[in-house]
Design goal:
Length: 611
């Protein structure tokens, strides 16, 4: 009988575990699809989908003009994201504005990311499991990777990036990041120099593509140094060792990634400074240094516990709106950050992996700490990349106790049970993103009585008006005025919520023939408006409304103020003349009519000269 050599035996034993791997992969993909299939019937929502997709003609297709804009524009959005724009443009080129296909694309990206995460975790565990024989290593890596990937994939924090069309760029950026990490690990275990070069170039290309899609991973190159701690175990035994000998060697091989990071960081900061004035960073006077530090500590702490308690989710949160930096949440967060930093530094020699995880946690979240943002939210989508770190911790922890059968059964079973609960809540969360009214209702429910909800009530009011639901529109617009008037952070940012809502309420009253109420709403809009151009426009509207009520006298102060703002406006002088004539002030009325004629004659002469 022929005798099998060692390699043949290994091949046979490992091949017998391929059905296990395939079964786990099919189960993962099946579970994720079932959990998120509800997004397939969703519409676009007026929550950046208008700016990014259906009202943005620069992504209407992959024309040369559009591609030039994608590659060069740094003003439309506060990020440099050419590949992100191309993702949108490709979908519009192929599928138009079919929202169902857009959401199917998001689900497909999430399925691919789940698969890539499984293989990344499997690679990490396989490299670490040197104490096991090849067959056992295959079993360990398959199960640990599957449980870690499941926890990430069905977590309710993932709903936003699957159910929201604009979140496509986050999913694609993470897809490229997963390819980068997996390729880099494969390069470290490559059998030939050629394989190593190929994987290294793939890693660099995927990392660059991730940052050009959306710079979510802009500081994530530190993950490569964490891999030197675990599973490669190449890290120096002392912290000072990172600055000499073998430590310098580890830094040098990461230089290409650091250079890409630096280049894209410069462009991104430039885009942030040159973007639309709406995205202007607040000054220190508007948003102080203490506020920024405490906000950062809160975000750092939030993403430690929130993946384990992903309930009461929303597209926006009130915590970081008009907050007290010395409130208990922020003091507790700062204490947690300081204590954790001290503990991980002090235990480096014994447990270097703890410091590696903590540094990765901080640097992955650095772009989303809101150091130059107000108002800010710890959005669910910001956990998409960071959640991979938690999955790696789960997979690594399960591997660490694998040899204790009872322990792995309890921990593994608990994690699967927790993931099942999370899957249920993910299914429950998906309808909140079905359309604009659904998402904004969920936001105002989450904000409760917080004054920051005014801008969300306004959007609800507008969409109720479009749907012909006038009573609901009045309720939402009135709520927007009420809550925005209570805001205490007007020094930090100004929004014209009150004048806009009062004007819409006035238009509703005009439609009902209720001119006194219309006039009252326009007066309220004038009192809240600060823009001189709009004051002039509103003064005209107020005059017309008050004329219907035979209350022309009340329009005079506003018309005169408007005339001071725009003394060259002929129509304004005519309006003043007509009102004064009604009130019997003939002398003053004639003066305004004469000024109107003079301005019109001057305009006609100017037009003639131009001709």
């Amino acid at each position: 009988m022929a005798k099998l050599d060692t390699d043949d035996v290994f091949s046979v034993r490992v091949s017998s575990f391929r059905p296990l791997r395939m079964a786990l992969i099919i189960s993962l993909i099946g579970v994720v699809f079932v959990v998120f299939r509800g997004v397939l019937g969703h519409e676009f929502v007026h929550y950046d989908d208008s700016l990014n997709i259906y009202d943005n003609q620069n992504v209407s297709g992959l024309s040369w003009k559009n591609i030039q804009w994608m590659l060069t524009d740094t003003s439309y959005a506060p990020r440099y994201m050419p590949l992100g724009w191309m993702c949108y443009a490709l979908d519009r080129q192929l599928f138009g504005l079919n929202s169902q296909i857009w959401h199917a694309g998001n689900l497909l990206v999430h399925l691919l990311n789940t698969l890539l995460l499984f293989f990344l975790l499997k690679e990490l565990i396989s490299l670490a499991a040197n104490k096991h024989d090849p067959m056992e290593r295959e079993t360990v890596s398959n199960w640990c990777a599957a449980i870690g990937a499941l926890f990430w994939a069905v977590n309710p924090l993932r709903v936003e990036t699957v159910a929201w069309a604009s979140a496509r760029i986050y999913g694609v950026a993470v897809l490229f990041a997963l390819v980068w990490l997996l390729a880099w690990l494969r390069a470290q275990s490559a059998q030939t120099p050629r394989q190593r070069r190929c994987y290294s170039w793939l890693a660099l290309g995927a990392f660059t593509a991730s940052l050009l899609t959306y710079p979510l991973a802009i500081f994530a190159s530190v993950l490569l140094l964490a891999f030197d701690v675990f599973p490669l175990r190449r890290a120096p035994l002392k912290l000072t060792g990172w600055l000499q000998g073998e430590g310098w060697k580890l830094w040098r091989e990461k230089i290409p990634f650091f250079l890409v990071t630096a280049a894209i960081l410069v462009v991104t900061v430039g885009a942030r400074m040159g973007a639309d004035p709406r995205f202007r960073p607040p000054t220190l006077a508007e948003f102080g240094a203490l506020d920024r530090v405490m906000q950062a500590c809160y975000v750092l702490t939030y993403y430690v516990w929130k993946p384990w308690e992903p309930f009461q989710l929303s597209a926006a949160y009130p915590t970081l709106h008009a907050f007290n930096p010395l409130g208990w949440k922020f003091l507790a967060s700062a204490a947690f950050v300081v204590v954790t930093t001290i503990i991980t530094l002090g235990s480096y020699r014994r447990w270097p992996i703890l410091l590696a995880i903590w540094i990765c946690h901080g640097l992955i979240l650095l772009p989303v700490l809101g150091l130059s943002e107000y108002p800010h939210s710890a959005f669910d989508r910001y956990s998409l990349l960071h959640g991979i770190l938690w999955s790696a911790v789960i997979a690594g922890g399960l591997y660490a106790i694998w040899d204790r059968e009872r322990g792995r059964q309890i921990v593994g079973g608990t994690l699967v049970a927790v993931s099942a609960v999370f899957a249920f809540f993910s299914v429950s969360q998906i309808p909140a993103w079905k359309n604009t009214v659904a998402i904004y209702n969920s936001i105002v429910d989450r904000f409760g009585e917080h004054p920051g909800r005014g801008r969300f009530d306004e959007v609800l009011g507008v969409f109720y008006l479009r749907a012909g639901q006038t009573n609901k529109a009045i309720e939402s617009l009135t709520a927007a005025v009420y809550y925005d008037s209570r805001r205490t952070d007007r020094h930090a940012y100004v929004e014209k919520i009150i004048p806009r809502c009062e004007l819409r309420l006035a238009e509703i009253c005009v439609g009902k023939g209720d001119w006194p109420s219309a006039a009252a709403h326009i007066q309220a809009a004038l009192q809240a408006e600060r823009d001189p151009v709009y004051i002039v426009t509103l003064a005209f509207k107020l005059s017309a409304a008050l004329a219907k009520c035979s209350r022309d006298t009340e329009a005079l102060p506003w018309l005169k103020k408007a005339a001071e703002i725009a003394p060259e406006n002929a129509a304004l002088h005519r309006e003043l003349g007509m009102v004064l004539q009604k009130l019997g002030s003939d002398t003053e009325s004639r003066r305004h009519f004469e000024e109107e004629r003079r301005l019109k004659a001057a305009e006609e002469r100017l037009t003639a000269r131009r001709s």
